[in-house]
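Below is a filled-in request sheet from our internal design queue. Each sheet records the structural input a requester submitted and the sequence that came back. We keep these sheets so that new team members can see what a complete request looks like end to end.

REQUESTER: design group, bay 2
PRIORITY: normal
MODE: inverse folding
CHAIN LENGTH: 139
BACKBONE (tokenized):
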């Protein structure tokens, strides 16, 4: 199953978790310092909250969670054939998970992430993107 991902910045992570648990009638799936995500079945959505008080209420990034690495690679190839320029797919550890992913920007420089989760990672692991930013937080 593929599903859309919506990553937003929140001022108060606990208040955001409480709101979205009630709003989607779904418990939080993963909590880490400054981070929470929900795997919502209906509608199929991966909702990610980042504690970013200075940017609260703003979009962090959008994504499409694929069900496999093959899905990530097929999407990347399709975008290249369509004339877009996605980044290289790579295995990374970010958002507290091992992932295969790539990024592509819209003409307005809105970041879209296409990824699959390979497994959970410990809260101590972080990895930087080639841009030198946290891979979980796009600015």
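RETURNED SEQUENCE:
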């Amino acid at each position: 199953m593929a599903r859309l991902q919506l990553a937003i910045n929140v001022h108060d992570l606990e208040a955001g978790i409480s709101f979205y648990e009630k709003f989607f009638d779904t418990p939080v799936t993963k909590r880490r310092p400054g981070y929470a995500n929900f795997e919502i079945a209906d509608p199929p959505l991966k909702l990610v909250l980042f504690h970013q008080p200075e940017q609260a209420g703003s979009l962090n990034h959008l994504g499409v969670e694929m069900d496999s690495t093959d899905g990530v690679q097929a999407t990347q190839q399709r975008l290249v054939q369509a004339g877009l320029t996605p980044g290289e797919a790579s295995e990374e550890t970010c958002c507290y998970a091992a992932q295969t992913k790539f990024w592509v920007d819209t003409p307005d420089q809105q970041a879209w992430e296409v990824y699959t989760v390979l497994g959970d990672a410990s809260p101590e692991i972080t990895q930087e993107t080639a841009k030198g930013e946290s891979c979980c937080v796009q600015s």
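SHEET NOTES:
- The chain has one domain: 3-120.
- Helices lie at 13-24, 69-81.
FILED BY: M.R.
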